[in-house]
């Protein structure tokens, strides 16, 4: 097998590691490209290609995250990870860990960790690497890595509300929600929302946003219902889609361009959090991006004509 073939075989794993460390599809892809260049330039063949490439992509991702942290501190409004359509890596023995770790809620909790803690947690807790492999990947002793995992577990656990629901149950509830949204059905939306539901968006200052968010079932239901009719009227399409392992949707304009994504956190038969990503920079990997401001202006005109 050639180096290129070995690399391609491991690409899904490398992307999944990088994405969980970085929370960015584009940065993860860049990290993989840099990993390939280093592997291609390596004068010797490593004893374990998987261990070597995993270590390289982890170190690159740690460095990228350290510089990204500074940008995220200055980010306009709420920062969310770039939405992920599908996780390319599968491991039946770790399916629960993999699914849980890629949700928006989990990725936002990972933001609490230092870059080193985050990398060690991802390698050990998500992908099940041995402490010897983790230590080699991050350049620390096994004892130090064990301590990093303990600290990371504590930080993650403090903010963790595990959004565990039967997959079929989630799909049914999400379907009812999206149907009620399309119809502008306030009562139908309200009954699916938790009393303290929070709807918040990430626009990065480059698209319309809801300030610090909309709170409470009544408010969220009314905002969503108000948005729905003019959006449908101007040819907008809501495409149900799983994002980051959660039920959600991709919103498109009449030309099929991406306006935003929406993901739903579901617990105890109710929607707890609605997160939308509107920042066009975070949507480019999903296809051609629409001008969200123009869509909003057209929707507002349609609403005024209706009123």
From TrEMBL:
Q: Which GO terms describe its cellular component?
A: DNA-directed RNA polymerase complex
Show where the RNA polymerase sigma-70 region domain sits.
7-69
Q: Specify whether NAD is a keyword of the entry.
A: no
- Top-rank lineage group of the source organism: Bacteria
Pfam families from the UniProt entry: Sigma70_r2 (PF04542), Sigma70_r4_2 (PF08281)
Domain RNA polymerase sigma factor 70 region 4 type per the UniProt entry, residue ranges: 105-156
Q: Which UniProt keywords apply?
A: DNA-directed RNA polymerase, Sigma factor, Transcription, Transcription regulation
How does the record describe its quaternary structure? Interacts transiently with the RNA polymerase catalytic core formed by RpoA, RpoB, RpoC and RpoZ (2 alpha, 1 beta, 1 beta' and 1 omega subunit) to form the RNA polymerase holoenzyme that can initiate transcription.
Family per record: Belongs to the sigma-70 factor family. ECF subfamily.
In Swiss-Prot or TrEMBL terms, this protein is called DNA-directed RNA polymerase sigma-70 factor
**What is the source species?**
Planotetraspora phitsanulokensis
């Amino acid at each position: 097998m050639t180096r290129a073939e070995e690399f391609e075989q491991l690409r899904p794993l490398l992307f999944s590691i990088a994405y969980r460390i970085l929370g960015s599809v584009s940065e993860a892809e860049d990290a993989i490209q840099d990993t390939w260049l280093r592997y291609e330039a390596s004068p010797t063949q490593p004893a374990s290609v998987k261990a070597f490439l995993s270590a390289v992509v982890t170190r690159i991702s740690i460095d990228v995250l350290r510089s990204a942290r500074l940008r995220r501190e200055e980010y306009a409004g709420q920062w969310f990870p770039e939405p992920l359509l599908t996780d390319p890596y599968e491991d039946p023995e770790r399916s629960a860990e993999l699914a849980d770790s890629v949700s928006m809620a989990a990725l936002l909790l990972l933001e609490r960790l230092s870059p080193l803690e985050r990398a060690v947690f991802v390698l050990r807790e998500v992908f099940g690497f041995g402490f010897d492999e983790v230590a080699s990947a991050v350049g620390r002793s096994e004892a130090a890595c064990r301590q990093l995992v303990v600290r990371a577990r504590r930080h993650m656990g403090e903010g963790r509300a595990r959004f565990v629901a039967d997959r079929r149950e989630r799909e049914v509830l999400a379907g009812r929600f999206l149907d009620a949204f399309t119809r502008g059905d306030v009562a139908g939306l309200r009954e699916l929302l938790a009393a303290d539901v929070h709807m918040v968006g990430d626009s990065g200052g480059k698209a319309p946003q809801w300030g610090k968010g909309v709170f409470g079932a009544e408010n969220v239901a009314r905002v969503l219902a108000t948005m729905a009719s003019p959006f449908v009227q101007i040819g907008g399409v809501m495409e149900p889609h799983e994002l980051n392992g959660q039920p959600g949707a991709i919103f498109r304009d009449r030309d099929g361009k991406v306006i935003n994504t929406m993901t739903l956190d579901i617990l105890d038969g109710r929607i707890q959090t609605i997160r939308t990503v509107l920042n066009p920079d975070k949507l480019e990997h999903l296809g051609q991006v629409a001008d969200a401001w123009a869509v909003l202006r057209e929707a507002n005109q349609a609403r005024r004509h209706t009123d």
